[in-house]
């Protein structure tokens, strides 16, 4: 995710009190808004490095998932409703198994995806490493990847006893290990421009 800062204004709810109904009243101004534990966050337009990493990561995950008919891979903006107080969140990339994907046309996914990926930027470090990390962990998302284009690293966290544990930090020519996408063959250096 790119720049993410809490939004505050006098006519809007206090931070910590935002609801999905409040979110639906926000202007359609091209910003990416998210509510995590009742706090509204807005993300500015992402950098080219961020978008390259999102595109390449989603392409490689998507190809793996499609070839094996495992489910759906989507990129932001797409709403995920984790809980009553954390909706919508919009992970940079999400994967949901085919068995868990709802039938028919949907506007959002309700519940915990099987895997989420956030691409951090200097301005989103706290949001992705603390705010979303905690929300994704609490929601029970089995796996969380954090890609860092600046350091050219990818961290994989897996849920163990209701807490994230670092499965590995991968860089250079390392191949990513995943508990959710077992056998995925992605070389980390290919994810960064």
Can you describe what's shown?
- The protein is α+β, with helices and mostly antiparallel strands.
- The chain has a single domain, classed as tt1808, chain A (Alpha-Beta Complex), CATH 3.90.1570.
- 21% of the residues lie in helices and 30% in strands.
- The protein contains three helices and eleven strands, in the order βαββαβββββαβββ.
- The protein has helices at 20-24, 48-67, 125-139; strands at 4-6, 32-36, 39-43, 71-75, 79-81, 93-97, 108-110, 115-119, 143-148, 153-160, 163-171.
- The protein has a six-stranded mixed sheet with strand order 4-6-8-9-10-11, sandwiched between helices. It has a three-stranded antiparallel sheet with strand order 1-3-2, covered by helices on one side. The protein has a two-stranded parallel sheet with strand order 5-7.
- A hairpin with a 2-residue loop joins strand 10 and strand 11 (163-171).
- The chain is globular and about 50 Å long.
What are its keywords?
three-stranded antiparallel β-sheet, alpha+beta, globular, 3 helices, tt1808, chain A, six-stranded mixed β-sheet, 193 residues
Secondary structure blueprint with pairings:
Elements: E1 4-6, H1 20-24, E2 32-36, E3 39-43, H2 48-67, E4 71-75, E5 79-81, E6 93-97, E7 108-110, E8 115-119, H3 125-139, E9 143-148, E10 153-160, E11 163-171
Parallel strand pairs: 5-7, 8-9
Antiparallel strand pairs: 1-3, 2-3, 4-6, 6-8, 9-10, 10-11
């Amino acid at each position: 995710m790119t720049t993410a800062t809490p939004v505050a204004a006098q006519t809007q709810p206090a931070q910590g009190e935002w609801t999905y109904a409040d979110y639906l009243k926000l202007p359609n101004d091209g910003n990416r808004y998210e509510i995590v534990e009742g706090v509204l966050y807005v993300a500015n337009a992402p950098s080219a490095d961020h978008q390259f990493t999102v595109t390449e990561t989603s392409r490689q995950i998507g190809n793996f998932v499609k070839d094996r008919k495992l489910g759906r891979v989507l990129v932001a903006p797409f709403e995920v409703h984790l809980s009553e107080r954390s909706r919508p969140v919009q992970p940079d990339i999400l994967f949901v198994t085919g068995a868990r994907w709802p039938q028919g046309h949907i506007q959002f996914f309700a519940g915990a995806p099987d895997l989420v990926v956030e691409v951090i930027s200097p301005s989103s470090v706290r949001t992705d490493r603390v705010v979303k990390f905690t929300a994704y962990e609490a929601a029970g998302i089995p796996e969380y990847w954090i890609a860092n284009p600046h350091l050219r690293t990818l961290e994989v966290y897996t849920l163990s006893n209701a807490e994230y544990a670092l499965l590995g930090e991968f860089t250079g020519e390392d191949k990513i290990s995943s508990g959710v996408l077992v056998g995925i063959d992605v070389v980390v250096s290919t994810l960064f421009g």
